[in-house]
Amino acid sequence: MSAAPVRYRGRFAPSPTGPLHFGSLVAALASCCDARAAGGEWLVRIEDVDGPRARPGAERAIKTDLERHGFAWDAPVARQSDRGSFYASALAALQARNVVYECACTRRELEAAPVGAGGERVYPGICRDGIAGDRARRTQRAVRVRVGHAIVHFSDRLLGPQVQDLAREVGDFVVRRADGLFAYQLAVVVDDALQGITHVVRGADLLASTPRQIFLQRLLGYPTPAYLHVPVALGRSGEKLSKQTCAPALGADAIGALLAAWRFLDQPLPHRTAAPASVGEFWRWAPREWNPARLPPVPMLPAPVTFAERTAGPV
């Protein structure tokens, strides 16, 4: 007797550090359409594990913007800030296996570390065998996971076979920060397992993080979702659209923004009929037309000029 097929469950996981922008809309649209086209579920998760960066009112603004653009989620919105006990349990499981250790290195001390292929500093293992010298007196300590000689292979649904030598390209990476906050890499792995996420559709800027997450999934005995990394939208100066680069918030023209994001992802417009004229019409049509095989197989693309312009100041 064959096993029942796994029901598709996807998610969109914004950080509450500011309003949604065109890059956010592209990621939300791709993840939601992929889920709906498969007859699956789509969830929203607020990634506020880094509490100091969260802005008051940002979560409400994000949900309002999603609703205005016709997104509907299939379960109550989850928040990382409610899940500290789950992250602590996962860390305890790693500690019980002796695959993590404390690190008292400061960011300044690691500025001389070599840069890996992905542009990140590769941790040189200074505290791997114990904290020595003056560092031993430091009370603020991160927790790192030992990567050993792990080489992680996976296949992205758009970008194809991927491989990362964790020791050469990343080094032992942080799972709990020196300030006591759990690191994104651990939190997102626990979140996806708790929510039963089967498919992750997100921006290609997170492609280099995926091997670390797969490594943690294997250590913790969690299933590995299927991954699809879509192109990241760039601003006029060539930087990724983000809250940190003052990307303009989405405007009042919801259907215009949806169609711009659809075209950015190189998805087909209707044949022999006009493009959808309303948000409701768009969502009645888009999941049926969604075709991942048409996605541009590149990690980044310029955003349309209307959405790439910088605002006058921080948003």
Describe it.
The chain is 29% helix and 17% strand. The C terminus is likely disordered. It folds into two domains: 152 residues, Rossmann fold (3-Layer(aba) Sandwich), CATH 3.40.50; 102 residues, Rossmann fold. The chain is elongated and about 70 Å long. The chain has 315 residues and is of the alpha/beta class. The termini are far apart. Strand 1, helix 1 and strand 2 form a beta-alpha-beta unit.
What's the short story on this structure?
The chain has 315 residues and is α/β, with parallel strands linked by helices. It contains nine helices and twelve strands.
Largest sheet report:
3 strands, parallel
Please name the CATH topology of the largest domain. Answer: Rossmann fold
Order of helices and strands: EHEHEHEEEEHEHEHEEHHEH
For the secondary structure, the number of strands is: 12
Q: Oligomeric form of this entry? A: single chain
Q: Helical percent range?
A: 25-40%
Overall geometric form: elongated
Instruction: List unreliable stretches of 5+ residues.
Output: 311-315
Name of the top-level CATH class of the largest domain: Alpha Beta
Average residue-wise pLDDT: 91
Contiguous helical run count:
9
CATH-defined architecture of the largest domain: 3-Layer(aba) Sandwich
Distance between the termini: 55 Å
Keywords, please?
315 residues, Rossmann fold, 2 domains, three-stranded parallel β-sheet, 12 strands, disordered C terminus
